[in-house]
Write a structure and sequence with these properties.
By secondary structure, the chain is of the alpha+beta class. The termini are far apart.
Length: 563
């Protein structure tokens, strides 16, 4: 057997001579016929890296390609296929396996090895059980060669095909298994629609909408849609395990895909990448879906289940804060966006030590610009440590009223909108961090949020609720998968406004009093008093407080007791 596929001046060639193989990457041999026999297992594993080496970076980026490391391919196969020979009997015959975007065949090879460990002869695996498709013939050549090397037999014609199941479904194969594949597993292309290099055109968007309906939105990643395609390709009771950008768990534009998947399959597990399989490029996960045996049109499922496994893997304790009044009933939560952020750039200068920080109602004095980086837990480090704003390093940034007069209207509206006694809440932290602006003169820097109580007398009550360990646990579960850091919390305006308020008012007021004491003089005694009262107010156990203490770390700054 021989395969040689060229791409311009670069090529990946795979040539088989018995169990000898060499791969040409840009014309450079990795192993040649004169180097002696190459171990078939090792040769098969070398084909995918050779494919990557022969594909230029721009093309890989445009197609969203990432070569799957062997450890990850095996992990996916293990989650998609039965764990032991005895488990197969309950599901009928040996399961067929499909990779709808197989590339160089790393995942198919891992699935083949898994089936062989279950007792299927190698040649029977390649002859009867593995199927793949890809739009890239170079990848298919490598996949076919890898499987042939491993089994000593070439896959039958029509098993590995040039085609796109995302558009054509099972029709890309001439004779797919009746009733669907036993498992769909792989690492489909990631194509974020915010990136010009991977954004799809209008014609492509229309084609996908015609096939998947409202699940396709403006910013729907191509990888998300492969989950839907996988649910169509797999048989009832079979599993779909596809690598996904972690955004699939909680992104707003992924909600329609999660809902559509939920009609077809149940989420039974969620693998979260701890090793950064693809470097710093993107954080990934792999939902483990099991196709429902009965699909009812219009059946709706709760996509919140996608966040729960993520929160549990991050060891976030469950909290039941119950129904009742929420923060939005007591205060307005306001957030700015790009226009407000960039509009303030020309109105900010370093504080010169004159004119104060601005008094209530005094619009002639400069006001502190409080960035997320300057917000601590129940305090602010403004003027104490440098912060970043508008790609510059600042010591003590202020918004100058004279400069603000010439700023864009969005910036002026933001200053007015956030004026008044408030809580300034950092946007991404390990525990909720917020500082109290009693005078109401600070200007929050986007993306920091402002929480303005309707009655300024409730300011410390609001702070006591927002800064509580219960609130951190509740928001961590609600926002799982949205922060840049797996253990971080991305605090959004809607989530913060939906935060349930404490049920026990007397303990809540005690917590507010203790928090105010801590803000004035941060001591361990004051902190312990607040945490005990906050736990009582929300009726949560000590485990939530202990978890919060472990996460908080240096965010809570304790001042040594005098004397």
């Amino acid at each position: 057997m021989a395969r040689l596929v060229a791409r311009g001046e670069r090529a990946v060639g795979v040539r088989l001579d018995g169990l000898r193989v060499w791969a040409l990457a840009g014309g450079r041999p990795e192993a040649g016929p004169d180097d002696g026999p190459l171990d078939a297992e090792a040769a098969a594993d070398r084909l995918a890296p050779a494919l990557e080496a022969a594909t230029d970076g721009r093309r890989r980026r445009a197609q969203g390609l990432h070569v799957t490391p062997r450890w990850l391919a095996e992990l996916l196969a293990d989650r998609a296929l039965p764990a032991a020979p005895g488990a197969v009997a309950a599901h009928g015959p040996w399961p067929t396996v499909c990779d709808p975007a197989c590339g160089g065949g790393a995942v198919l090879l891992a699935a083949a090895r898994h089936l062989h460990r279950l007792g299927v002869p190698r040649r029977a695996v390649v002859r009867d059980l593995v199927w793949g498709a890809d739009i890239d013939p170079v990848g298919l050549a490598a996949a076919e060669a890898a499987l042939a090397l491993w089994a000593g037999e070439v896959p039958p014609p029509g098993r590995l095909v040039v085609g796109d199941p995302l558009h054509a479904g099972a029709a890309v194969w001439a004779d797919p298994p009746a009733g669907g594949f036993g498992a769909v597993v792989g690492n489909p292309p990631f194509q974020c629609q915010l990136d010009r290099a991977t954004a799809r055109g209008a014609a492509e968007r229309r084609r996908l909408r015609a096939r998947y309906g409202p699940a396709v939105r403006a910013y729907t990643d191509t990888a998300w849609l492969f989950l839907l395609a996988g649910c169509e390709l797999v048989r009832p009771g079979g599993r779909v395990v596809l690598v996904q950008p972690r955004s699939v768990v909680a992104a707003r534009d992924a909600a329609a895909v999660r809902a559509a998947v939920g009609q077809r399959a149940a989420l039974v597990d969620l693998w979260l990448d701890e090793r950064r399989a693809f470097g710093a490029a993107v954080a990934v996960c792999a939902p483990v879906l099991e196709r429902r045996r009965a699909i009812r049109p219009g059946d709706r499922r709760d996509d919140g289940d996608w966040r729960r496994p993520l929160a549990e893997q991050a060891a976030v304790p469950p909290v039941d804060l119950g129904p009742g009044p929420v923060l939005g009933d007591l205060a307005a939560v306001v957030a700015g966006f790009r226009d407000e952020y960039y509009g303030l750039v020309g109105a900010v200068r370093e504080h010169d030590g004159e004119g104060g920080d601005g008094a209530p109602g005094d619009r002639a004095a400069p006001a502190r610009l409080v960035t997320s980086g300057a917000v601590d837990w129940a305090g602010t480090s403004w003027g104490e440590r440098p912060v970043r704003f508008a790609k510059r390093r600042w010591r003590a940034p202020v918004v100058d009223p004279d400069l603000l007069a010439g700023a864009p209207a969005a910036a002026r509206r933001w200053v007015e909108r956030s004026r008044g006694p408030k809580l300034v809440v950092a946007s991404q932290t390990r525990v909720v961090e917020a500082a109290v602006d009693e005078e109401g003169s600070w200007v929050p820097s986007v993306p920091a949020l402002a929480v303005l109580p309707a009655d300024p007398a409730d300011l410390w009550l609001v702070a006591a609720a927002v800064l509580s360990p219960a609130a951190t646990a509740w928001l961590a579960r609600r926002s799982a998968g949205t922060a840049l850091d797996r253990h971080g919390i991305k605090v959004s305006g809607p989530d913060l406004a939906a935060l349930p308020l404490p049920r026990r008012e007397a303990a809540w007021r005690e917590a507010a009093s203790a928090l105010r004491c801590f803000a004035g003089r941060p001591t361990t005694v004051a902190l312990d008093r607040y945490l005990a009262a906050a736990a009582a107010a929300y009726e949560v156990d000590d485990a939530v407080t202990t978890w919060w203490r472990d996460r908080a770390g240096p965010a809570v700054r304790i001042r040594p007791t005098d004397g």
